[in-house]
Amino acid sequence: MSHNKKLNTLLKSVRNTKASSGRPDTTKIVAQLRGLGGPIRYEDTGKLGFGLLLLFAGGYGHLLGSERGYPIGPDGTSDSVILIYNTLIAVAAGFILFWLFRRRKARKFVQEVFERAALVSYGFHDEPVPALKELDQHFHEFDRGNDSRKIVYFMSAPGDGNKVRQGYSLFQFHWVVREERQVTETDHNGHSTTKTETTYYHYDRYGLMLEGSYSGIQIVSDAPGGRYKLKYRPASVEFNRRYRIRCVDEMQAAKLLKPSVVIALENASDQLKSPNLEYGLNGQMCLTWSNDPLSVRTVMKSKDNPNELADIIAAGAKLPVLDEALQLVADIQRHTQSNFSMLEGNSPEASIQGVK
């Protein structure tokens, strides 16, 4: 069986598993990857080379024709020759686009296989996506963008049976910023027209959501303006350089931000890009950051080595970014475990007067 057929069989096997049970057989996938006998990419070099050759022929023909004049074809004009050159370029484009499509397909497959194995390894299962309107009521994190917003995925994983690692949800939040500007154009007659150009910028953040022990606290390194009236600053200069804190009750913020928690947050910002930690008025904790926790590029050095990918999957398809976020949550809970019960009078309902 050719390498391309083996690769197609592997792709079909994984996607058929997805369609039937939703749970890939990682042992079978590892065996198939090890037996692939070549990189996770299609052997289409010949097609690419042929496409580039046709592109050169058609382009060179047009170049000579523009400089010296096109040859006369059988019809007595140069139209047929120009048509031949255009056909060569069109066919070349088809070969090159085919090569690009299959290259992208193979790379997408690497991500898909790793991601599915990781979700199984961590025990994730899909949950109903909460409405953004509901999330907006409790967390300022989602108050972003001026166009469309959506939760791309919302998945839950079980805890490990102790207080350090409780159940949590992992999500991806996508939003769009729309910018409009007036552009004035002048034609060859000197007439000016003004039109509106619209540009859309797409952004993503990833995060954990779980039950917290505080309420009405925002610790942010990347966010819009604060939701709460009061500001709080711990003694650490480095922490204050990286984060801003807004809160409903300064006592709660002080109870949370023990020196050990301050150090944990400082260290986490080296691994998690632009982290934000927020305790909503509903008592839930929301930790967010901007680097993709499910990206295969966080663990795989090569782009298409099947043995490397097989080893990663066989070892449990670890997610370093997610592990760092979970470790931060565990550290915070461990250092504040004596404060797990909120003081009476500091409940979300009792503290609502501190909200803007």
Brief descriptors of the model:
356 residues; alpha+beta; 9-stranded antiparallel sheet; 10 helices
Overview of this protein structure:
With 356 residues, the protein is of the alpha+beta class. The protein has helices at residues 3-20, 26-34, 45-68, 79-122, 132-138, 237-242, 250-256, 259-268, 306-314, 320-335; strands at residues 125-126, 149-157, 168-186, 192-211, 217-220, 230-231, 244-247, 276-279, 284-289. The protein is 42% helix and 20% strand. Strands 1-2-3-4-9-8-5-7-6 form a 9-stranded antiparallel beta sheet. The longest helix is centred in the N-terminal third of the chain and has 44 residues, at 79-122. It is flat.
What's the topology here?
Blueprint: H1 3-20, H2 26-34, H3 45-68, H4 79-122, E1 125-126, H5 132-138, E2 149-157, E3 168-186, E4 192-211, E5 217-220, E6 230-231, H6 237-242, E7 244-247, H7 250-256, H8 259-268, E8 276-279, E9 284-289, H9 306-314, H10 320-335
Antiparallel strand pairs: 1-2, 2-3, 3-4, 4-9, 5-7, 5-8, 6-7, 8-9
Helix pairs in contact: 2-9, 3-4, 8-10
- On the 0-100 scale, what is the average pLDDT? 85
Characterize the largest beta sheet: strand count, sense, and whether it forms a barrel: 9 strands, antiparallel
Would you report the number of β strands? 9
Envelope shape = flat
H/E element string? HHHHEHEEEEEHEHHEEHH
Q: Going across the major beta sheet, what is the strand order?
A: 1-2-3-4-9-8-5-7-6
Give a brief rundown of this model.
The protein contains ten helices and nine strands.
